[in-house]
Amino acid sequence: GESVGLHLPTLSVQEGDNSIINCAYSNSASDYFIWYKQESGKGPQFIIDIRSNMDKRQGQRVTVLLNKTVKHLSLQIAATQPGDSAVYFCAETQNSGYSTLTFGKGTMLLVSP
Amino acid sequence: KAGVTQTPRYLIKTRGQQVTLSCSPISGHRSVSWYQQTPGQGLQFLFEYFSETQRNKGNFPGRFSGRQFSNSRSEMNVSTLELGDSALYLCASSPGLAGGPGRGEQFFGPGTRLTVL
Asked: Are B116 and B85 a contacting pair, CB within 8 Å?
């Protein structure tokens, strides 16, 4: 079946670096994408979302890029901090109807001080 | 607003037993979704309930079932537990309205860690 996947299982960066987490999706009908952050012992927490009529969206220190041509999402975190260490998931869905979220496998981000 | 709450937080059962997990969504949210999270399979969708009706179902055996009450609280049940059912079970709530802004945004609870021995 169609699914969402991630290229890198673990990403290690130094504090202050910019981090980029990538995600590939395969369902061409998906039109709404979300990035979640999951810290140890907690449930996933919403970070930022983007609709398919956009190719870029910025939040506080985070930017999501969407390339529909190659079905690729990325999450950029500026000036990464130790508190950003977590597992990051991308998820896809269709904004119309009542479809559910399909999650990628997740990428572990490790930030060293 | 209080967040999504799940009880119990930790549970240990033996094979063959059954278990019931509970989820209280954010006040005003009518949709509750359940997910199973394991290291090998990641986050997998179990089912979604909206206004006491199952609206979507994932690819899990019939041993996994759920229900939603009139106050939007939800329970999921797993019967005849297997070792492979050991996982973090996450509940997420959302307003549940189709096509609205932020419709896909779900708010997750902390999960119930189920260990099957």
From this structure: yes
